């Protein structure tokens, strides 16, 4: 289906219009994104789902300013990313965007505390100690702050990454399969925290996942297939997501 | 696919190229040295073949002891009649030669930097003149006529008909140029200036009246040189010998090659230092490669490869690198040889522009060293690779293959102790008896062990050093000097805290890797620091000796490196009322129990007025009876007693039993451990190089102002255009300048080792960054900009380099202190550590680190963030 316009319920944290991303040329050409338009409203938790090769990671990378569209535009807040040079993009990521990756989220030589504060340290900015304590408290990392990443469990590492994504109060947080490498208990803790961040602090989160359970923590799920947005669900449950997923490749 | 390409380009090319480059530079230096010295050898072979061209037999004085560079003693001219009477002699003439300086039209001496200034007679029969050809004019036939070599004439605009001045041992006089001569194709004799006179004039000016330096003979048609040599030999008086021209050419060529042998040895030592440094780089590279390929190697093991096969895989890679680098190095050796030739040419030593052909020896040594060092350095990493367990293929295990700190400490300490013991033993020779090991080898081997030990042990201390350096660098890093500017344009503080912190953390992440990289730089800088300390100590000692021991107001010496000046200057000065005392110093080699030793001949009547010698036994006056004075250390060591005779071998007069008449302690100014009177000197030394004064010390008469006495000195010296008159301060300065010049030369040769080390830092850094690809991707993703990333890498490189500099300085200071202590008997009795130069070395180290970081930093900052994050 061609996307029905999503009703705007609030300010838009990020949006992509007519996004096309082409890799390669000629015979090897791959259209990873094929005319994608979407908006991510402030204070909402959006999951992007789709089968392998559907372009969901590419969508996230382009919206997050890690990759460039072949055509189309991306806005974060009021800023159009295509007009930014590397330096400005870097600053934008530093100040407006938070990231949680699937693996290797932390700098091994820095302590957990330093890793959480990394974007602020890079920017040379002071942090808000109360906010820091609040984030750390919720994540249950209080006693692990002086440890190196190698001394933390996988779940703890991802929670440190999540704390890092939140500590600078970015306009939007992108998470790429954040629970992909975690056992179900750790995954649930992490996703629950992400949902709380949205509900309690009004954080905007966009998460790429292929896990229906993970997607069910979101307010809304966007489905991607062959580089196009094919559907979306509001207030998903694991079952409704699985039902929708079954339609792919059927 | 991108990943594979990235890996190939980033790892393979860089890894192999930089590793090969470090080996290549070392091999090129070795090959270049050989090619260069071969070229010199060949040049001299040709030169001497040419000089004796057309001649059959040479008659000359017998050299009793082959010492120094002194030629055979002169012979009586009456020998010529005996030779002419021998059947089979077609033509024979006597010739003389000696010291001669040609002046240009402005009256300035023409003195090449390296080669000598010589003169001689021209035979009447030009067939006897070797390859001498008259290019323009005619042979000199009367006193007042001179012929000059074509190069000197061309370079100074001299031509037939010009009147020029020539300085000879007996006189400074004007002559008319009647000929410009060449030597076959060459314009001069290997750079020497040459003034030729008619025989009678030559005998006069070279102070050889009634004598010949040699007699040149041409045989009749059909008489072989060997036969004629035998016939002539049978009529010669004792002390005179006949040799075939061919033998003489070979002898002289060989003697010159031998005297240049030190050059080859010196250059090879520096080349080996470079290779040694390169071995650290190779070892590090292979260690990193093995680590990066851990999974691949473990997989090989898992599918059934034996440990031995894994070792072979790594070693084969080393062999490929070694062979390629050696071949390239040998090829590049020609460039180095050309460079050395240009340097020689620039200082007036003309060599043919075509280098000698590649000798088999050069190829064998080049490949053996290049391949050998590469493979040896790769063996340890290869053995470690074979110990990777197959399970490492399946899971991320941190395979710890390194030696335990405890073992490292023990082994390192033992090696360090052995190295220090070897050095001390080599220098002071009374700790252990190592039999066949000679002193220099012991010191060299000891230094090698010290370097290895420090490299081993330093991995234990890089952490604390880096932790201390971090904050210090926060103040002095160049980027921080610009902090106010940055603050103005809106950047905030704290930025450097992170980049600095990451730089420090990264530098100590792999302490062994950092230690090895730093050690490579340490070696070059340690030797520089060593030369700094030794040079400064020599300068301080010389200054001290001059300050305390020089009573003369003026010192006269030649402006160039070598040679001397006519003794007539001393006589002229002595006659001036403004000058109270003149001491001539003449230097000569003699044979002391089979090895070359040298002595100074001095004016015994004036030396006490001009130079303080610290006489402890006997008196200077006793030298007039034909004795020798010895520096006290040697006298004591040998257990000599006053009045005892010691055997001294002279080239001209053979073995003489000479009584020891006294001892002295201050040898700093006379720069010799043995002193004789000028009379004794003249009795025992004859021939080229002994007919001139080496140094002259003069004291002004009481009541004569320094201005007046200086004017007298300068006026007298003006005719002797190759000398410089210096007062005490100037003389001290000139001594220091000489040391500085040597320091510059040594340090220039060490630059190569430092360059290799910088490559090493760059290589290690590039490989480490490659390992940290994902980390860099993450930093970039969360907002680190490119300048910050580059700064982080620069700081890391600076820390590694400064650790290397600090280690180098510590080792260099140690070497400098012990060597200076060992040389105290040689008059180097002051230890002086040049703080400014040492500090400059640290800064130099930091700059070297910065340079090494340029390329890796640029590459890192250009990494694609997404690919970097996804990189495994």
Q: Which stretches of chain A of 5+ consecutive residues score pLDDT under 50? A: 1-8
CATH topology-level fold name of chain A: Rossmann fold
CATH architecture label of chain A: 3-Layer(aba) Sandwich
Q: Major beta sheet of chain B, specifics?
A: 10 strands, mixed
Binned strand content of chain B = 15-25%
The structure class of chain B reads alpha+beta
Order of helices and strands of chain A: EEEHEEHEHHHHEHEHEEH
Distance linking N and C termini of chain B: 13 Å
Level-1 CATH class name of chain A = Alpha Beta
Range of helix content of chain B: 55-70%
Shape of chain A: globular
If helices are DSSP runs of H or I spanning 4 or more residues, what is the number of helices of chain B?
A: 27
**Number of self-contained structural domains of chain A:** 1
Q: How is the main sheet of chain A built? A: 6 strands, mixed
What shape does the CA trace of chain B take?
A: elongated
Count of helical stretches of chain A: 9
**Average predicted confidence as pLDDT of chain A:** 86
For the record, what is the CATH homologous superfamily label of chain A?
P-loop containing nucleotide triphosphate hydrolases
Structural commentary:
The complex is a heterodimer of chains A (250) and B (872). With 250 residues, chain A is an alpha/beta fold. Chain A has helices at 56-63, 86-96, 112-116, 118-123, 129-139, 154-167, 184-201, 212-215, 238-246, and strands at residues 12-23, 30-41, 45-49, 71-76, 79-80, 97-100, 172-176, 205-208, 220-225, 228-234. Mean pLDDT of chain A is 86; it is low at 1-8. Chain B is of the alpha+beta class. Chain B is built from 27 helices and 24 strands. In chain B, strands 15, 16, 17, 18, 19, 20, 21, 22, 23 and 24 form a ten-stranded mixed β-sheet that branches. In chain B, strands 4, 5, 6, 7, 8, 9, 10 and 11 form an eight-stranded mixed β-sheet that branches. In chain B, helix 12 (439-458) packs across helix 17, helix 16 (495-507) crosses helix 25 (786-822) and helix 23 (728-771) runs parallel beside helix 26 (835-861).
């Amino acid at each position: 289906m061609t996307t029905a316009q999503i009703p705007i319920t609030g300010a838009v944290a990020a949006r992509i219009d007519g996004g096309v991303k082409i890799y390669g040329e000629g015979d090897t050409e791959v259209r990873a994104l094929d005319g994608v338009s979407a908006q991510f409203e402030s204070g909402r938790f959006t999951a992007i789902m789709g089968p392998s090769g559907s372009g969901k990671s590419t969508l996230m990378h382009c919206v997050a300013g890690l990759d460039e569209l072949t055509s189309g535009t991306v806005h974060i807040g009021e800023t159009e990313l295509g007009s930014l040079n590397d330096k400005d993009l870097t600053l934008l990521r530093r100040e407006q965007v938070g990231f949680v990756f699937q693996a290797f989220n932390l700098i091994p030589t820095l302590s957990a505390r330093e890793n959480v504060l990394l974007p602020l340290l890079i920017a040379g900015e002071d942090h808000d100690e109360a906010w820091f304590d609040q984030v750390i408290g919720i994540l249950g990392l209080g006693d692990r702050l002086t440890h190196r990443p190698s001394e933390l469990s996988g779940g703890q590492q991802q929670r440190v990454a999540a704390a890092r994504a939140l500590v600078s109060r970015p306009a939007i947080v992108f998470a790429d399969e954040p629970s992909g490498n975690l056992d179900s208990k750790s995954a649930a803790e992490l996703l629950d925290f992400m949902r709380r961040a949205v509900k309690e602090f009004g954080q905007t989160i966009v998460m790429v996942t292929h896990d229906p359970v993970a997607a069910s923590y979101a307010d809304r799920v966007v489905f991607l297939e062959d580089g196009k947005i094919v559907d979306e669900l509001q207030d998903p449950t694991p079952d409704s997501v699985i039902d929708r997923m079954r339609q792919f490749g059927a | 696919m991108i990943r594979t390409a990235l890996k190939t380009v980033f790892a393979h090319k860089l890894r192999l190229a930089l590793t090969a480059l470090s080996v290549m530079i070392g091999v090129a230096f070795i090959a270049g040295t050989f090619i260069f010295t071969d070229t010199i050898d060949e040049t001299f072979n040709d030169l001497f073949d040419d000089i004796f061209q057309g001649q059959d037999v040479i008659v000359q004085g017998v050299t009793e002891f082959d010492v120094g560079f002194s030629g055979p003693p002169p012979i009586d001219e009456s020998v010529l009649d005996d030779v002419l009477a021998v059947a089979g002699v077609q033509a024979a003439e006597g010739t003389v030669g000696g010291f001669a300086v040609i002046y240009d039209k402005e009256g300035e001496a023409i003195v090449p930097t390296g080669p000598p200034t010589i003169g001689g007679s021209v035979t009447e029969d030009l067939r006897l003149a070797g390859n001498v050809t008259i290019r323009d004019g005619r042979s000199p036939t009367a006193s007042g006529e001179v012929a000059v070599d074509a190069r000197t004439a061309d370079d100074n605009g001299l031509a037939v008909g010009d009147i020029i001045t020539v300085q000879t041992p007996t006189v400074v006089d004007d002559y008319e140029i009647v000929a410009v001569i060449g030597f076959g194709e060459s314009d001069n004799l290997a750079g020497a200036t040459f003034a030729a006179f008619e025989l009678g004039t030559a005998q006069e000016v070279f102070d050889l009246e009634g004598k010949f330096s040699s007699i040149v003979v041409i045989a009749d048609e059909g008489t072989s040189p060997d036969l004629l040599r035998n016939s002539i030999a049978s009529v010669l008086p004792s002390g005179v010998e006949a040799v075939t021209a061919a033998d003489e050419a070979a002898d002289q060529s060989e003697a010159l090659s031998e005297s240049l042998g030190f050059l080859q040895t010196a250059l090879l030592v520096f080349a080996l230092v470079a290779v040694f440094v390169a071995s650290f780089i190779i070892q590090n590279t292979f260690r990193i490669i093995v680590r990066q390929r851990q999974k691949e190697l473990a997989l090989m093991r898992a599918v059934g490869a034996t440990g031995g096969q894994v070792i072979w895989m790594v070693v084969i890679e080393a062999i490929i690198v070694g062979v390629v680098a050696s071949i390239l190095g040998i090829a590049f050796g020609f460039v180095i040889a050309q460079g050395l030739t240009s340097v020689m040419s620039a200082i007036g030593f003309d060599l043919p522009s075509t280098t000698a052909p590649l000798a088999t020896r050069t190829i064998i040594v080049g490949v053996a060293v290049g391949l050998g060092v590469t493979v040896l350095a790769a063996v340890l990493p290869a053995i470690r690779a074979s110990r990777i367990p197959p399970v490492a293929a399946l899971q991320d295990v941190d395979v710890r293959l390194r030696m335990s700190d405890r073992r490292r400490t023990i082994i390192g300490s033992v090696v360090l102790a052995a190295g220090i013991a070897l050095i001390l033993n080599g220098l002071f020779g009374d700790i252990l008896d190592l039999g066949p090991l000679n002193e220099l080898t012991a010191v060299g081997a000891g230094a090698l062990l010290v370097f290895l030990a420090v490299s081993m042990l330093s991995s234990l201390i890089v952490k604390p050093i880096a932790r201390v350096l971090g904050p210090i660098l926060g103040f002095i890093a160049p980027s921080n000097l610009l902090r106010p500017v940055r603050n103005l344009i809106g950047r905030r503080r704290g930025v450097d805290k992170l980049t600095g912190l990451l730089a420090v953390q990264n530098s100590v992440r792999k302490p062994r890797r950092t230690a090895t990289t730093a050690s490579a730089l340490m070696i070059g800088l340690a030797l520089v620091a060593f030369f700094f300390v030794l040079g400064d100590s020599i300068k301080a000692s010389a200054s001290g000796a001059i300050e305390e021991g020089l009573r003369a107001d003026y010192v006269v010496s030649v402006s160039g490196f070598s040679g001397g000046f006519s003794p007539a200057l001393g006589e002229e000065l002595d006659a001036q009322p403004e000058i109270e005392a003149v001491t001539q110093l003449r230097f000569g080699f003699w044979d002391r129990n089979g090895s070359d030793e040298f002595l100074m001949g001095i004016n015994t009547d004036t030396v006490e007025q001009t130079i303080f010698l610290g006489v402890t036994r006997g008196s200077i006056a006793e030298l007039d009876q034909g004795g020798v004075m010895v520096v006290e250390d040697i006298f004591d060591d040998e257990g000599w007693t006053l009045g005892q005779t010691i055997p001294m071998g002279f080239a001209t007069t053979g073995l003489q039993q000479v009584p020891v008449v006294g001892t002295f302690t201050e040898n700093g100014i006379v720069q010799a451990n043995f002193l004789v009177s000028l009379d004794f000197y003249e009795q025992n030394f004859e021939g080229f190089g002994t007919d001139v004064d080496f140094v002259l010390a003069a004291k002004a008469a009481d009541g004569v102002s320094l201005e007046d006495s200086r004017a007298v000195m300068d006026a007298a010296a003006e005719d002797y255009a190759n000398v410089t008159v210096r007062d005490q301060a100037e003389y001290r300065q000139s001594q220091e300048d000489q040391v500085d010049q040597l320091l510059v030369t040594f340090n220039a040769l060490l630059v190569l080792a430092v360059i290799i080390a910088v490559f090493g830092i760059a290589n290690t850094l590039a490989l480490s960054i490659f390992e940290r690809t994902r980390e860099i991707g993450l930093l970039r993703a969360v907002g680190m900009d490119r300048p910050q990333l580059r700064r982080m890498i620069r700081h890391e490189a600076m820390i590694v380099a400064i650790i290397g500099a600090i280690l180098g300085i510590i080792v260099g200071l140690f070497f400098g202190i012990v060597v200076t202590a060992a040389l105290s008997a040689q008059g180097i009795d002051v230890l002086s550590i040049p703080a400014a130069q040492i500090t400059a070395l640290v800064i130099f180290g930091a700059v070297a680190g910065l340079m090494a970081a340029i390329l890796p930093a640029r590459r890192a900052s250009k990494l694609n963030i997404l690919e970097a994050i996804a990189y495994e």
